[in-house]
Amino acid sequence: MTRPDPPGRRRAREAALQMLYQWEVGRLGPDEVVATYWTSRDPDEDVSKELRSFANALVTGTIERVSEIDGLLSARAHNWRIERMAAIDRLVLRLAVFELLSAPETPAKVVINEALELTRTFSSVEAVAFVNGVLDAVRKDVKRD
Question: I want to staple 144 with a disulfide (CB 3.0 to 4.6 A). Which of 52, 64, 108, 118 is the partner?
Answer without folding.
Answer: 108
